[in-house]
Amino acid sequence: MHPSQSELLKLKNLGLASVNILHSIGIRTQDDLHRVGPAEAFASIRGRGINASRVLLYALQGALLDVHWNELDPDLKANLVTEAEQILARKDRA
């Protein structure tokens, strides 16, 4: 197992499948995820044709906050969805 993979696996909400998806978009560390942000990472995942649900978006945010994704504030979840949709719309227009 690559050291960065084990780092991401230590984050709440992230399992091996999620970590492998993150690696496919170039996110290898917690710092990478923080720098990119959950909405941009989610948009990149969806942009690669990976069928990811909103739960992954919430899981990414929860990983950064060290909380279970289901405990995120509903307003935060709604803002994340809006941000991800805006990013995806911009990428579709490009």
Automatic annotation (TrEMBL):
It comes from the Bacteria. Residues 5-82 form the TfoX C-terminal domain. It holds the Pfam family TfoX_C. This is Competence protein TfoX.
